[in-house]
Structure formats: C-alpha cells, structure tokens
Model the fold of this input.
Amino acid sequence: MEFYQQALAIYQQIGTKAEEASTFNGIGSVYYGQKQYPKALEFIEQALAINKQIGNKSGESTTFNNMGAFYYSQRQYPKALELFGQALAINKQMGNKSGEGTTLNSIGSVYYNQREYKKALEFFGQALVIHQ
Done:
C-alpha cells in the first residue's frame, strides 16, 4: 500500500492522469483484498472519474470490470451485470477482443451464480470463441 501511495503522490505532482487512475484502481484492489469494501469502492470510483475525464476508454473498461467484480463478490448481481455490460460495450467499441472475452466470462459467472445456467452457458460460449 505504501508504494501505491508514493506512486499516487508522484503521478498527481507530475500530472499523469492515466497513471493516477491506474494507481487508484490498485489501491482499491488492496482495500478490497483487506475486505475494506467501502474504502475499496471509493478508490475505484475515483479511478473511473479520472478515466472518464481524460477519455481513457481502456481504463474505463478496466475500472467497470473491477467495480463489477466488487458487486459480484457482494452478491449484488444486477449491479454487477450493469457494470460488466458497460465494460463489454467499451471493449466492443475499441475492438478489444481479449477484454471482451474476459468480460463475457464474468457475465457468465454472474448468471451461473444466479442459477441461470442457460444464459451462463451462452456467455461462457461467447467468451470461449473469442479466446480460441
């Protein structure tokens, strides 16, 4: 955590917004790992705001996926699907097949955990096609 905070201070000082957003995502992930969920979400939301501000679509997609994973782990499946859907749309827009496949897999996992196995299989199948 200490290194993330040092990096954040440097990025803010020199004004590199994309790296600042990435560092907020990293700090959020650390708090998530420590089960400090409100704090994790606070940092991930800051990353999203910066990525939107600078038009960093790749960063937005990553952040939407992180937020989706957060809500997925909290069993807030509708919110997770909404966020994964936003990440998927960005990945498709950018032509990021790897990101698209990863997000389709995440959506499949949400449906699987909701016992919607037919939908889960559909998304897992789409992810598999992309990753092959």
Notes: The domain at 1-55 is CATH 1.25.40 (Serine Threonine Protein Phosphatase 5, Tetratricopeptide repeat). The chain has two domains: 1-55, 78-132. Residues 68 and 83 are 5 Å apart (CA to CA).
